[in-house]
Every structure is written in structure tokens, then in C-alpha cells.
What we know:
3% strand, 2 domains, two-stranded antiparallel ribbon, Neurolysin, domain 3, single chain, 4 strands, mainly alpha
Amino acid sequence: MTAISDLISSLETRVDPLSREICEVYWEMANTGNEELHKRMVELEMGMHAIFSDAQAFTTIREALDDPQYSGETRRVLQLLHNEFAGSQESEEIARRKAELSTSIDGDYANFRAELNGEKLSANDILDVLKHCNASPVRKATWQAAKRIGPVVAPKILELVDLRNRTARELGYRDYYDMSLKLQEIDEHEMLTGFRKLEELTREPFAALKAGLDARLVKRFRLGSTEELRPWHYEDPFFQEAPAIVELDLDSLFAGADLEKLTTDTFDRIGLDIRPSLAISDLYERENKDQHAFCMMVGRDPSRVHVLCNCRDNESWAATMLHEYGHAVYDMGLDPLQQYFLRDCAHISSTEAIAMLFGRLTHDEAWLVDILGVDSAKAAAASADARRQQSWAMLLFVRWMMVMVNFERSLYNDPSQDLNKLWWDLVGQYQMVTRPDNRDEPDWATKTHIAQAPVYYQNYLLGEMTASQLKHYIEHKLGNEPLVRQPRTGEWLRDGLFRRGSLLHWNETLRELTGERLNPQYFIDDFVSQQEAGA
């Protein structure tokens, strides 16, 4: 027992300072685009790899897991360490090349600006064109410009895929996809079975709503028929965000809004204070800054939780702020005295669930009234449309998620296949979008998750299902009021979820919190059944 305790203590002593510096360098890279930091990041990642690639330590951990004397908290720490070590059992040469590729790709994405007619466009500029422009040629040119990052990063991604697969197969896994799910403690068969059920349940209501949307788009763009619709006629480059299907101009409600105040007020209502994180975050657009949004805890220090956004006063960025600070309150709520390797969210899908639970609030009637200050009569009138719009968004999300999950699974199974064709085959099958004519480009590589967050996307849907389960418990068992009107919510989440860290398997944590393991029925009731009822 002493030898194992010493090993765990030694690992913490080595991992903690390195983890902190990795986070600090990444934060500076994201905020400045400073390419000189890339080499430093590679060296730091190699230092972390040196710790977790230690074959002797890995053998000791595996042997300890076979020994019944190790139980409880110690056994859980060993299991989590096993998952960390297993993903790092590769040569220094392969690890270094992976780190170099990842850092290079990060820089490519962060510094890319679509260029059109000599003008550089930010990601927000592209979305503005796709949302507001009625000229098909301009939309097409903008969409194509946004996709030019694909050929830049695709060869690097494919090399990464090969290296990831090589490591996984040497460890006895089918491929990197199989290894990733196992190390994330996700049962692949159980996950795919549940996702197929959702795909089947969403197929007809999605097709019906999309047909209505397509008919409106034909009129808007003065096309001859729906057969002329192409990807650039939708409101974002991937058709992953739901265009309006009702007369609901939420953006006008947010014009001039102080998103920091709205977010602070939201969490204040339920007893969670985000001000310590706001003070060390970076929330507005700037040249050379990463155009996306993320939350990052430095090391495993709940007092150092940063959020990066590029806020504008619209509904989308308001929802993003709530989403990212959902991640933040989880990290800030971790127990700083908990064993180091347990001081983390129960699972990726658990922190995504909290982020999604709060990100949904911009469509919530009580939130519109209490936080945004919308007139109650106006909010009540809009609530039915808002719920219908959100249900449509979730239907679209499920369809888009199926593209991502099936693409990644197939990518790692056979990266030599025609991936450009596969991508558009899946987009056509699940999103029912017609591929561009005569296009053979690596459009799949323009989705940053495939390179930067591999085998992660399934956690968004697991997170949405968990969010529905949590919301149901809060509004039907914790109390009988909307979430923002229940001040006990923050304490319940902090004590029942956040402070537990990763002491238990994520599904067991959920069972202890809500009384049952993950149950997709709450998501179905929230969104699929709602849409069918409103059809």
C-alpha cells in the first residue's frame, strides 16, 4: 500500500506544475496567436508524455488494479491513472510528432481568417453574411472562403489519425476510436444503441421541419425549387445551428445587453458566484485571438478558471456565455482539498451537461422575464415559439451529431477511404443537405473538433441528455419552479455533483444525484415529443 501511495504522490508532484504551465501557455496562445509559443507547448506536452508513458509505472498500476486490497478512493485513483497512462504508451518520437502536429493545427485554426475580395473575415463576419445576406453568389463565395482552411490542415490531421491508430492498435484496441471510448468509460454498444434510437425518433419530425424551412429558403433566395438549395443557403457553415422556423427575433431582445451582467445575475439567482472567474477571463473580439469560446481551469486549481469568448450583443453569444460559465461554475465548485487526480469533473459529459443546462436558458420564459427583463406578457407570448424553436434546434443537433460520430468512427476505422465523399454522404443522410456540385475538398477538416478534440462529440449528446435529466429533477423534485427561481439549485449542484469530483463512475454519480442512471427519455420528452405535439 505504501508503494502505491508513494507512486500516486510522486505523480501529483510531477504532473501539477507541468499541467499549470501547459494551461498558462495555451491561454496566452489563444489570446495572442503568438506562434513562438508553439515550440514551448510541444516541449511541455513532451514533458507530460514522459510522465504518463512510463511503462514501469503503468505496469505497477495495472498490477495494483488486479489486487483486491486496493479499494475505494485509492482504487478509483488507480483506474483514472490507468486511463491516463494507457493513452500515452507510445515512443517519444511518435509523441513528439503528435504534439508538433497538434500545436501546428491549433495555430492554423486560430490564425485563419477567410479572405473574400481582399477583405479578411472573422468567424462572426461569416455568420453575419450567412444569416443576413440574400444574394446566393455572395453566400456561396463566403461559404467557400470559410472552407479554405480544410486543405491546409487535412494532411496534418490524417498524419495524426495514423499516429493515434498506431498507438491504439499496439495496445490491443481495435483503433483509436475504440480506445478513446473505453478510456472515457463509455460503452460503445450502449452509446450507439441509444443514438440510433434517437436518430430513428428524430428522422420524420426533422424531415418535416426541414421541408418547411427549405420552402421558405427557396422563396427568400428566389430559387426555382428546393433542388437548387446548397449548404451555403443555411445560416452557418455546417448547418449545425437551427435557423428560425418561427417569427422569433431573439437577437433584438439582446441589443445593447451587457452579457457579463446577464450571466452574473443568472448564477447569482441560484447561489453561484462567477465574479472570480470573470476577473481573469477574456470575453471580447480582438485581432489574433482565437475566434471560438472555451473554459479552462489552470491545472486543477478551482480558483483559476478562465473563460475565452468573442462576445457580441446577440442571443447566440448570450447563450455561449451561459454555456461557458456553466463549465466554469463546475470547475470553481470542485473541492480544492480533494485528492488531486479526483479533482475533476465526473466525466466530460457531466461538465457539458451543466454548460448545456444553462446555455438553454436564453429560450426560457422565466429567464427572459427575471434576468433579461422582458415584459412578462411579451415573454409569455414568445415562450411557446421559443420552445418550438429550441426543440427544432435539438432535432438538428441530433442529426448533426450523427454526422460527426459516424464520420469519426469511420475515419479511424479506415482513414484511407474517400473521406471527402464520406463527409457529404453522411451530411446528406442525416442532415438531408445536398452536397455542392463537383466539389472534392476536405470539408470535414474544417470542423475543428476532428483534429483538436478527437472522439469528443458524442459527449455533447450525452451531455444534453444529462442536462434534461438534471432539469427534470430540479423543476419537479427539488422544487416546483423554473430553474432560475430556485435558489437551492446551486447548492444542490455544488454538493451533489461538483464537490464529488470524479470519485465515482459518471453514471453512478448521476444515479446518486437524481436517483437513476442516464435515461434518454427526459431528452425525448423535452424535445422530440414537444415537436411532435406541436406539429
